[in-house]
Amino acid sequence: MPGFVRRPFSALIVFCSLACVSLPAGANSVKVSGTAYQGNESNALSVTAGIFSTFSAAPDGPSYLGVGTAGVPLTLFFRVLPWSGPDNAQVNIGSKFTDILQGEGILFTGTFTVPMSAISKGTFTGPVSMSGQLAAFQDLTLGQGSVTPGPLMANLLFNGTGMATLQLNDVGGGQFVVQFATVNFNGRGSLTVVPEPGSLFLLSTGLAGFGTMCWRRILFRSPA
CA-CA distance, 208 to 198, in Å (whole number)? Predict the structure, then answer.
């Protein structure tokens, strides 16, 4: 009898473990909001999407974003990139934290017709579209002054719209340089959070224990 019980019990543990390890990461539709800026050799983004929130900044980027003429449509494309490291990134995924943020960043696109009055004022605000992708990875040396990428923790794909405030530099003759841009944006995205191996192990052992209890009840149930 003991051998008869042990074989189904072992098989149940293997089945539960394999089932949990093969569980896919859940992707949820989430609202996305944030801000970003670029220009003057700087680059930063701040994004909130469900349990995912991040801030990334670095003193690195283009010195300006474009050149235009008053009254003539100007199309701008600029991508704000994520940065990693203890001094550059903060990523919170629920109660978990990391400082490794990668991905394609956020692409902003907009077409503006800037009047002469805006050039004199030095700023112009107009609508933009945006799309982005950000991925957070576990830092295996978190808190040690360096970054060592580990497993993927979360991936966010999103798109939407925003309002961009452009800082203009008058260069004369009705021409200007877009020196800097700040964007406030909103949209929707797909957030995928990857379960930790430890959580999967706890789930698999819990299921195995539950299955064992049920098996014993069936096996040792008194006959009617």
Answer: 15
pLDDT value of residue 101: 98
Report pTM.
0.78
Q: pLDDT class for 201, splitting at 50, 70, 90?
A: very low
Mean pLDDT of 7-12: 47
Opening angle at CA 153, ends 105 and 99, nearest 5:
65
d(CA 113, CA 168): 13
Characterize the bridge pairing of strands 42-49 and 175-193: unpaired
HSE at residue 81, side-chain half, CA atoms within 13 A, is 10
The C-alpha atoms of residue 104 and residue 59 are separated, in whole angstroms, by: 18
Indicate the domain borders of the chain.
Answer: 1-23+195-224, 25-194
Q: Say what the pLDDT of residue 205 is.
A: 44
Give all strands (DSSP E) within 140-202, no chain letters: 149-172, 175-193
The predicted-structure confidence for 140-177, as pLDDT tens digits, reads as follows 999 998 899 999 999 999 999 999 999 999 999 999 99
**Phi and psi at residue 200, to the nearest 5°:** -65, -40
Position 186, amino acid: N
| Residue 188 identity (one-letter amino acid) | R
The alpha helices in the chain, defined as continuous H runs, are 2-21, 116-121, 197-219
- Calpha distance 129→117 (Å, rounded): 25
